[in-house]
Amino acid sequence: MTDWTLDRTFRAASGDAVRWAALGARRAGAPPVVLLHGTPFSSYVWRAVARALAPWHRVFVWDMPGFGASEMRDGQDVSLAAQARVFGELLAHWEATDELDPASPPAVVAHDIGGCVALRAHLLHGARYARLALVDPVALAPWGSPTYRLLGAHPEVFGQLPPPLHRALVREYVSSASAPGLPPGVLDRLVEPWCSEAGRPAFYRQIQQNDQRFTDEVQDRYGELDLPTLICWGAQDSWIPAAKGRELAARIPGARLRLIEGAGHLVQEDAPAELTAALADFLRPGGPTTAPDAG
After folding, report:
1. What is the mean pLDDT of residues 146-169?
2. Is 60 exceeded by the pLDDT of residue 191?
3. What phi and psi values does residue 263 have, to the nearest 5 degrees?
């Protein structure tokens, strides 16, 4: 992948075309890794981490329905509940097509709403993981910035913005996820999917459909998690404060918290080397060697 292209397609039960790709090859003793993105992003934010992990792990990336290169359409269910079902279907598809060994469940690394998707798939639908890493996840109430709630409450109004104003709004919103600021080329790549004819309504659709009930339904069950769990959090996250990371770590038995200084919500862009190092240590056979943050 010289650029970032998802070259394979899975057709979900909903009919949605889901784009995905795999990097690296199977390695004995090293779990495959599945990376989940958040909103309003795509698998593109995982490109540096995925490429860094690929020499040691088989790495899977995908764009959720309604995001990135995957299908965007009117009437689409892109709620967190629907995304969790699709993720379970995708894991089953990879097992059925021998992309994944059913006897060796993958490690899952999930960012933002991807965290809720991964947690719901595991707790409600029985998806099996070897390990779970949550990166600034949407997992505990309350969540959603004032801007997010405003956009979700009035999609019919914001959906009427002329394309240049819509683009400016999305650029400003995406920019706020980074503490030091995003390079112009990266920002352009993250914004572009939301600026097509299909992408403009899709941007407001996915916000409108997601609300706190999807985490309310599972957050009292985090004590049931029985697998190695790492929580990484950008110390300068202005979307979901680091205090939520400490609260989440306290709810999950044995969870380790790693705060990453200088990083905002988009840790993958703000501190890719630090995040990759934390994940590589967590994923290595035998588990992590570094101590967690005191938090």
Report:
1. 93
2. yes
3. -110, 140
User: The whole model's pTM is what?
Assistant: 0.95
Residue 3, pLDDT score:
85
Q: pLDDT digits over 253-262, tens only? A: 999 999 999 9
Contact 41, 67 (CB under 8 A): yes
Residue 130 near residue 282, CB atoms below 8 Å: no
CA angle 49, 54, 58 (to 5 degrees): 120
Least Cα distance to 219 among 131, 138, 134, 295 occurs for 138
* pLDDT per position as a tens digit, 60-114: 999 999 999 999 999 999 999 999 999 999 999 999 999 999 999 999 999 999 9
Q: Among all chains, which residue has been given the structure tokens 């003793």?
A: 29
Q: How far apart are CA 136 and CA 87, in angstroms?
A: 19
Q: What is the mean pLDDT of residues 234-249?
A: 97
CA-nearest of 151, 143, 145, 116 to 132 is 116
Contact 183, 212 (CB under 8 A): no
Q: What pairing do the DSSP bridges indicate for beta strands 59-62 and 17-23?
A: antiparallel
Amino acid (1-letter code) at residue 141: A
What letter represents residue 157's amino acid?
Answer: V
Beta-bridge mates of residue 109: 35, 133
φ, ψ of residue 224 in degrees (nearest 5) = -80, -15
The contacts found for 74-80 with CB under 8 angstroms, 24 or more apart, are 74/201, 76/14, 76/16, 76/202, 76/205, 77/14, 77/209, 78/202, 78/205, 78/206, 78/209, 78/210, 79/209, 79/210, 79/214, 80/113, 80/116, 80/117, 80/120, 80/138, 80/210, 80/214, 80/215
DSSP state of 39: T
C-alpha–C-alpha distance, residues 106 and 289, integer Å: 20
